Task: structure prediction
Amino acid sequence: MKKKRLCKHCGGEQYRYRSNTSTLVAEPCECLATCGCDELQYRWVHVSYETGRIVPEAGPNTYEAQAKCKRCAPVYELVRRLNEARFPTKHGGKSKPITKEQKPLYAYLRQWVKAWDEGAVGFTLCGAVGVGKSQALVAAARALVEKRRVAVRFSHAPQLLHTIKLDIERGLASSARFHELCQVPVLAIDEVAELRTEWEQQIISDVLLARYQAGLTTMATTNLVMVAEDGGLDDEELVDQLGSAGRRVASRMHEFMPLLVVGGADLRRLRPADKQAKLEV
Ligand SMILES: Nc1ncnc2c1ncn2[C@@H]1O[C@H](COP(=O)(O)OP(=O)(O)OP(=O)(O)O)[C@@H](O)[C@H]1O
Ligand SMILES: [Mg+2]
Ligand SMILES: [Zn+2]
Ligand SMILES: [Zn+2]
Result:
């Protein structure tokens, strides 16, 4: 039997990423244009007046309607979801562990993605600077979209706060972005505790409290090292960073986004030779 050759652009996925943007942009691959439906995503079908079912040919008792094409509509849907998630290109590439400390984390996240169900408990990746928290967060969030077709939003807390601030400065009564973050089925917040003012603490606390209340999956990263010397939990700094509602928010975070501690060295500071060795782990 002749083996079908996979598209050289997308390897058969039928969509691909553009690499020249700061936010990851997905687009349908050109190989999808060979789908054959009249218009991509939709095709014209004949429907029987009597049964309401699609029939192979036009006849006196049929009308024409547009139906979503089974082949290409799901790809368009996936591309839309990937773009709505707004993943940063910087962390959008590899999604495999590169250090021995990352190995159990990636194994856990793979399982987590597989088992994800609406309202599932999320996680908070905590650990020192440069150990690979953001990379792992994006990898897990992207896998949720790619493998499970879930609606996800990714946001970097400082940038997100900036966007909300601009909305308010423009005189909008409420920020659409803020409401979106409170309501999307899955939210990933990078650097969740990078908060400089009371207003910033309040916005992030409000988002987290709203999501806890609604039972929505939430993931985050933070540089705060929350493990005490005796191995126990020490979240005083987190409580502090979150401001006046800090204790209430942190307590809820432990329940609906429990800590996953990431160890290892600062990957940005490794010498090129060390990096090579890590890549071969
Ligand atoms: N699994 C991986 N595959 C490829 N590159 C990785 C991986 N993990 C980390 N890196 C790279 O190592 C560097 C540090 O990773 P990352 O930015 O995720 O760390 P971080 O823990 O979020 O750091 P910070 O606390 O400063 O935000 C980045 O350049 C990242 O792209
Ligand atoms: Mg980071
Ligand atoms: Zn292709
Ligand atoms: Zn089609």
